[in-house]
C-alpha cells in the first residue's frame, strides 16, 4: 500500500519530489480521482480550485482528473483506471461518514492492492489514521495536522499507535509497510 498524508498538500516543493519517488514512475499521463467531499459547506467549496492546484503541481493534467463526491456508489472495477485518489481537507467526520455510507473503503482497498496511491490532505489524512472511530486503518497512529512543531523526520514506529504532529511542510509516507515522516 502506498499513501501520502499531508496537512497542507504540496505547498512544500520538496514534498512534490518525495511524492514522485513514492509513485515510482514519471508523472506523465497520471489519472486522478479528486474527492472534495470534506469541503461540506458552500464557503468551503470555494477552495476546490486551490486543491486542484495540488494535483497540477504533481503533474496531473486537468483532463485526467475526475471528481467524485461520495453521493452515489462507485464501480469498484473502474477505480483501477486511476493512479491517484486525492482526498481534500475539510470536515473529517463528514468525509469518513460518507466513505463508510458508500462502502468506498472496500473500493479503496482494491485500488491500493492494485498499485494506486492514496493522497490525503488534512481531513483526508485524518480518516487514514486513528483520529476517528471506523477509520480506514491505513496508519496505526493519530495525526495532528497544522502543528507549530512537527514530528522529527525519519522512520516512524507505529507499533504503539503514537500521536504524530505534522507541520504544514511535512507529510507521512506509507510505502508497502515502511512509514516515515518527511519534509
Task: Please provide a written account of the structure.
With 183 residues, the protein is an alpha/beta fold. 27% of the residues lie in helices and 21% in strands. It has helices at residues 13-23, 42-45, 48-57, 92-101, 104-113, 123-126; strands at residues 2-6, 32-35, 65-67, 84-87, 117-121, 142-144, 154-155, 163-165, 171-175, 178-182. The strands form two sheets. It has an eight-stranded mixed sheet, sandwiched between helices. The model has no long low-confidence stretch (mean pLDDT 96).
Uncertain regions spanning at least 5 consecutive residues: none
Please identify, by name, the CATH architecture: 3-Layer(aba) Sandwich
Average of pLDDT: 96
Under CATH, the homologous superfamily reads Class I glutamine amidotransferase (GATase) domain
CATH topology: Rossmann fold
Shape: globular
**Termini gap:** 20 Å
User: Counting H and I runs of at least 4 residues, what is the number of helices?
Assistant: 6
User: Can you tell me the CATH class?
Assistant: Alpha Beta
Strand order in space, largest sheet: 3-2-4-5-1-9-10-7
- Percent helix, as a range, is 25-40%
- SSE arrangement, N to C: EHEHHEEHHEHEEEEE
Q: What does the main sheet amount to?
A: 8 strands, mixed
Structural class comes to alpha/beta
**What proportion strand?**
15-25%
- Number of self-contained structural domains: 1
Could you give the count of β-strands? 10
- How many whole angstroms does the radius of gyration measure? 15 Å
